[in-house]
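Issue 218. Parser rejects a valid record. Input:
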Amino acid sequence: MIRHNFNEPILHLLSVSPSHGEPETILSTIYEHSSDGIFILEPVSLETSLDTYSPPSHLSTTPTHSQPDAIDFRFLFANRTYLQLLSLDPHKIIGRSLQEFIPEVIRRPLEHHLMTCLQQKTINSYQQVFTTEEGAIERLLTLSPILNHEGKVSKIVGICQNMIELCVLIHHQRYRNFFENAVAGIYQTTPDGHYQIVNPMLARIYGYESPQELITTINDIAHQLYVDHRRRDEFRLLIQEKGAIWGFESQVYRKDKSIIWISENGRAIWDAKGEIIAYEGTVEDITQRKQAEEELWRRDKLLQGVAKAMHHLLTDRDHNAAILKALATLGEVTEVDRVYIYESQLPSDSKTPILTLRFQWINPSSENESTSKFTKKITSQLGLSQWSKIRENYPIVTHFLKNLSQEERQILEQEKLLEQLIIPIRVDKKTWGYLSFDEGSYPQNWSEGEVSILMAIGDSIGGALQRQKTEALIRYQALHDRLTGLPNRTLLNEKLSQALQKARHGGTNFALMFLDLDYFKDINDTLGHAIGDLLLQSIAKRLTASLRDGDIVARWGGDEFIILLSKIYREKDAVTIAQRILDILHPPFDLAGHQVTIGCSIGIALYPEDGEDTETLMKKADTALYRAKDSGRNNYQL
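Output the parser choked on:
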């Protein structure tokens, strides 16, 4: 049994009326406006008939004790819709019995449900087919008892509702619930860009308090909503071509001018003339999805760039060139203004590290004129209080600029630095320096994944520097004397070959000196090899100090040294330097409590007078050395 009640306000008014007159007044207003058939019946002989009533045989299988016509129902009211439904005369039925006017096919089920309503004192509904001039129509009859002050049923109100209209009402209500509570934005707009209908979700997506605020605020969708106003024209063109569109993605402005991504589904509404009169569709906020896609794209791009940078670091023998190529690759994939490497060195007389720029890449398309003076300016002139502290105390530094004071941030903005990512570079398990990414155009939002990837390249750069350091040490050891640290024969031969090429092409002169210590063997045998080694180291220091920039002193072996003098314009220049060497070695050496005095003999060969190749010059210098020894030692000979 159906128990809907779609006219509760009417029934409530009737139920509180104490007399016949008040319901008449209420119903007279309803008559002209209700599309439902409304009538009021009054049961007759109610007290003597309730206990003996049983429903008609075709409606119930329970035994009957008396006939239903023992209970009579009289019309008190009937509105125009109900009278037209049964083709009744309003002047004849009021106060008359139900049995006098209602066809039996309609009356019998009606009486059954009326008696049920009387017995149970509850609303009772059922469906009934009526035959009219237009054919058979189905109505929903709802019978509602009205109780008097004693709690007895005094009247029964009947309402006949059109089933089609009722279904439409239910459907409309369901559609309204769907529209109001949909998880997607729903809209209808005019062709020229005005919103006509929007649901609450669309208002929330665009950041407005209510649909009405959105409708009244935006009157030009193309320019007020879309970040790229041309997207509206593209939207309209696609719909005009295809009739509908799905997954149309665009960036739009919210009320607060922040930008989000949306996906639209839409279709056109056409009039009878084939012209578009409106657009309607749905909107979904896809900002999180687009951000995830963007982050994934950036990560993949960064991974490819890091792989390329690592390839340079691992395969290029020129470590400096490899690091510069790696910085350029990283700068291109991260799209920052500047990528650079600073070495951090702690002076012995200071607690503040000194930063020295070692490598740098600047974006060619950037307007940021960052230079190597920038960090020095920050630490010395600008005095940013937390700069060194933050850099030293944190393994990774990003988004820290916003934690600086307003004054300091303004200074950085003037220097065109809005965001900086600093990654430490470690060599020998110690912080050697920093890899820094500077952005001066817009704040760069570094994700945790991107930072982790760039930490790996920081480690790779540290590894490259470690290899460079190791190789430099190996090369140094291969080209230098281990005892004195002076160039050895191999490095001297390289330098002599270079001097010959330069002299031949440039027309310059140079000199070659052979130097042999006088009586070194006696000192070594008398005082021991340890003192002899200390003497050789001290002599190497004095010789290096006596020479000019560009001159080279090498240990040839034992107590023999060779000196290559560049830029010798005349013989006197070489002689002057030779005498300076004799003079600088004359003072005694204090070696572990021993005062040691030693002299030397020097042989000099000049290019090109004494020879134009290495072998000839070496022989001439050696010959001059022996002449110096034969001349009493502690002198020089040409």
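Fixed in the parser; the record now loads. The two ends are 134 Å apart (CA to CA).
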